[in-house]
Design brief:
By secondary structure, the chain is mostly helical. It is built from three helices and two strands, in the order E-E-H-H-H.
């Protein structure tokens, strides 16, 4: 032991320590560190790496599923829009066809009504003509009977013979019609 001043310093402590020279504590610490690294590398890090890889794969799969769902939703939306557009066109087509059918039905009903009206008018005219003819015939018969009776009184002989009476009546009516025709042309 050396005496330095009043203090006694042990020899080992007095010698300068070289940090480049390993001492036993360092070697033990180094061996413990290597053992811990080995245990961590062999038993702890692989399961953690596997769990992280599984988790990353799961997240990647979820992103793929999300993208696929997004694409499916977009495709479904486009399909829905296309169906809606087609349905609108079909509805417009049906409305137009109904409008056309309605117009055709109205035109057909008008045509039928016009035909019925024309038929009724023709029937009425024919009936009026028949009634007029009947009235004219009845008037001729009455006028003929009256003319025959008057002629019998004037002539003093009987005109009961039908043929004779018909000729007389026809002449009388013809003379009346000719008089009427001459007065109507003379008046105009």
């Amino acid at each position: 032991m050396d005496k330095v001043g009043n203090a006694v310093v042990p020899m080992a402590a007095a010698a300068p320590h070289n940090f480049l020279v390993p001492n036993m504590t360092f070697v033990v610490e180094l061996i413990a560190f290597v053992i811990i690294l080995f245990v961590l590398g062999k038993y702890v890090i692989p399961p953690v790496n596997k769990a992280m890889t599984d988790r990353q794969e799961k997240i990647r799969k979820q992103f793929e599923d999300l993208e696929q769902a997004r694409a499916d939703a977009k495709q479904a939306e486009e399909g829905f829009k296309a169906q809606m557009t087609e349905a609108r066109h079909e509805a417009a087509k049906i409305r137009e066809e109904a409008r056309e059918q309605g117009a055709a039905i109205i035109a057909d009903m008008r045509k039928q009504a016009q035909e019925e009206s024309d038929r009724i008018l023709r029937h009425a005219r024919a009936q009026l003509e028949a009634e007029r003819q009947q009235a004219v015939q009845q008037l001729r018969n009455e006028v003929g009977a009256m003319a025959t009776e008057l002629a019998e009184r004037i002539v003093g002989e009987s005109l009961t013979d039908d043929e004779r009476r018909s000729r007389t009546v026809e002449r009388f009516i013809a003379s009346l019609e000719s008089e009427e025709a001459s007065t109507s042309t003379g008046v105009s």
